[in-house]
Amino acid sequence: MRFRLRIPQVNPTVMEVPTECPYDGCEGRHFKLHQKGCSKPLRDMKYTQVKADRYECLRCHRTFRVYPQGVSGAHCSDTLKGLAVLLYILGISYGGVEDVLTALGCFLSKSAVFRDVQAAGEQARKLRRRWLQQQRGQVQVMGSDVTQVRCAGKSMVVGISVNGKDGFALDISVLDDETAETLTSWLQPVAELVGAEVLTTDDADAFKLVAEELGLKQQLCRVHITKNVLNTIAELAEQAWAMPPPPIPEGLEVNANQLLEDLAELEWIILGHPGSGEKMLEKLHLRYAHAPAPRQGETATIWYRMRLLTLHLWNHWKKITLYQRWRDRDQEKLDETNNASERGIGWWIKDRYRSMRSYKRKQSILNVSSLLAWVGAQPTGYNLAAVYAA
């Protein structure tokens, strides 16, 4: 995880003239200077006090302060808050941030650091929602995945959806479970808003149901599929080589040697993704289609496992190889993996979480992950002042 951020600076000489009344319910746009040069005590790396101006709204006749750049109504400057937030997202604990700032001569309690991080996370979520409204119809490929973190002694499911092209996080949410119904309720509004056409996921059955429910084409992660199939092939080959060879069920016209040849062919299909792969899988499946299912309490035979494996790949071959046929508006090829979502989980959810015992609040999961995802995707020199803007 790499951040190249700019910490907001205090500039006592720069003060913007107000353009709208800060009070709820008042839409005033005209003001007069009520008091100039009000003293404002400040906790900062450089300044202990700045001057603020007080204006009166000509509509509601209430007054309010306007502060210099990098200063708000809070006791701490945006510089100090920005440094605290940056230290935290880089992996230092709340207490550790307190120790660092104290050593620099700017005491900030770990409770204050916690509040600043949470406030920045809340603002990052607002910024993402505004940005997402601008992505209407702009994201053709959406990736999605789920992971789990501990919160107050319980395991919580966290879902992430990303732009499948550049990996920018579209949404991060804490979910009740990993069922298809929950995943559909979560992903549907995001997919409809951005105009998604393709959903890239791992091989989980729940995501297959989501894609069908939302009417999206689906690309199953080639890496997941290949790894799982090769592991199964290795297990079946080991059983086929056993002495004595596994008994052949009645009505099944195969033997151990034929099985080994079929496993070799299956390995070639899953690694090479040939254009005739679907027909080859159909042929393989029909060879094992009459393998009997195990009775209650029995273990599935090697023949029945081969039947299920070939059927699964045959049924989902179009989803495994969608990348060979689908192109976006710019005629760019679809990524055959779900790496964009997995990177999002690693960078924005898991990386910071690894140094914790667990979260204590569900809201903290959202705030910290959303903050990391937002600032981590910004260009070099992004000003952290944006996560303190009203």
The overall pLDDT average reads 93
Residues in helices, as a percent range: 40-55%
What portion of residues belong to β-strands? 15-25%
Quaternary class? single chain
The helix/strand order is EEEEHHHEEEHEHEHHHHHHHE
First CA to last CA: what distance?
28 Å
Strands in their spatial order, largest beta sheet: 7-6-5-8-9
Per DSSP, the total helix count is 12
Q: Let me know the number of strands.
A: 10
Q: Give unreliable regions as ranges.
A: none
How would a textbook summarize the main sheet?
5 strands, mixed
Give structural attributes.
elongated; 5-stranded mixed sheet; 390 residues; 3-stranded antiparallel sheet; alpha/beta
